[in-house]
Design brief:
The protein is an alpha+beta fold and 196 residues long. The chain contains two helices and eight strands. A hairpin with a 5-residue loop joins strand 1 and strand 2.
């Protein structure tokens, strides 16, 4: 009998090591499954909104007074207007206009620390008020890229994030306005408005 009990132990000893391995596999699968379903669970409130993502294409024009210099900071007043005619949504909205204006102390062609209030006017009569939290200016090759970030504080899509990107192609007649005494007084170009 003692021999039999001794001989049974080796046959039973691998089982405890197999069970943790199976348990690990089950836990790993459960964690992966939970991770796969988590975004769906978290994303469900956003899907209750009219749309989870809006992408509008159009044009934007921004005027600066005085003009922006490359390295000389100036206190600048600006006005930006955008017209987005390609804005297809499922509820009949097809276009939107964008309006933003403000005063920026110490602005240059490469640093534009703006905080302002902007308005979106949808073609169905609805509006959105946006708190602009900053404007980033980047250069992609010869193209300047202006990116305005903000949050919808009221109206349509309240609580959503807004990104307005405008790509400015260089003016061949005046390629370096930031280096002139007048400075850069106007930019215009293709623009994309995204609401997330």
């Amino acid at each position: 009998m003692p021999h039999n009990e001794h001989s049974e132990r080796p046959t039973h000893s691998p089982r405890p090591t197999r069970r943790p391995t199976r348990l690990r596999r089950v836990l790993t699968a459960a964690i992966m499954l939970a991770g796969a379903t988590l975004p769906v669970t978290l994303g469900s409130p956003a899907s209750a909104a009219p749309t989870a993502l809006v992408t509008c294409l159009g044009q934007q024009v921004t005027d600066y007074a005085p003009g922006l210099r490359l390295t000389q900071p100036r206190d600048v007043t600006y006005q930006a207007t955008g017209s987005y005619a390609s804005c297809p949504l499922n509820d009949g909205v097809t276009s939107v206009t964008y309006a933003e204006s403000g005063f920026v102390p110490g602005a240059t062609c490469v640093a534009f620390p703006s905080t302002a209030t902007a308005q979106l006017s949808w073609n169905n009569g609805q509006n959105s008020t946006i708190q602009v939290t900053g404007t980033e200016i980047d250069v992609a090759g010869a193209t300047q890229v202006y990116l305005s970030l903000g949050t919808v504080t009221s109206g349509r899509y309240a609580g959503s994030t807004v990104n307005v990107t405008t790509e400015i192609l260089p003016d061949l007649l005046n390629p370096l306005p930031c280096l002139t005494t007048t400075g850069l007084t106007r930019v215009s170009g293709l623009s994309t408005l995204i609401i997330v």
